[in-house]
Structures are given as structure tokens and as C-alpha cells.
Design brief:
mainly beta
């Protein structure tokens, strides 16, 4: 199937970010996440978790990411071209460090809550 970005709805996640679900089907989904404004590196990272395995590719900008594992907490700054793997059910989150930053998130299985 073909998915043309100009035909795909954009969902406002919060005052600073939007999500656009891109291609999806047969257990795999991609989503474009855009952040309008940078936040201070000292900002609290909003953590969440879900039963989906996730990878994230930094399309533009820089982000401070956190992944909480049972035995330790991983925090790193990533930049354009970097990628991250998130195991299922591990709390994780990020804050954008540059204006107009973009992420490409991939999930398996698909996020039914995004459709």
C-alpha cells in the first residue's frame, strides 16, 4: 500500500509536539513526531511505556532520551542520524534540545491507539 504524507492527518500530542502516522500494516507502523520548540536540557523527561517494541531514528535536531531498565537508567543526548531501540514495557521519554526537531518512530505491533 502507498501512504502519501499530504493525505495523512496530523495529531496534536501536546502544546509542543505533533504525530503523523505514516505507513502501517501487518504488525509494523511508522510515525513522524515533530517538536516545535527546544526545551532546557534540565527539563523533566516525560516518561511513558507501552507493550510495543520501538525504534526511533533522529531525522532532525537533538534530543535527550531516557530509558529506565530494571537495574539502571540510561540517559543520552542523540543527534540527527542517531537511532535508539526501546524494549517493550520499559519506561522511556525524551525532550527536544533544538527547535523544529523530528523523529521517525517505528513500532511492532502497530499502535492501535494511534489510528
Amino acid at each position: 500500500m502507498f501512504f502519501h504524507q499530504s493525505n495523512l492527518p496530523i495529531t496534536q500530542i501536546d502544546a509542543n509536539s505533533t504525530r503523523q502516522v505514516l505507513a502501517h500494516g501487518d504488525g509494523l507502523m511508522n510515525a513522524l513526531i515533530t517538536f516545535q520548540h527546544a526545551l532546557p536540557e534540565t527539563a523533566t523527561i516525560p516518561l511513558h511505556q507501552h507493550p510495543h517494541v520501538q525504534t526511533t531514528y533522529v531525522l532532525k535536531g537533538a534530543f535527550k532520551f531516557e530509558i529506565d531498565y530494571p537495574d539502571h537508567q540510561a540517559i543520552q543526548v542523540v543527534h540527527q542520524g542517531d537511532a535508539i531501540y526501546f524494549p517493550a514495557n520499559h519506561p522511556h521519554g525524551c525532550i527536544p534540545l533544538e527547535d523544529d526537531s523530528k523523529l521517525l518512530d517505528s513500532f511492532t505491533p502497530i499502535r492501535e491507539d494511534f489510528l
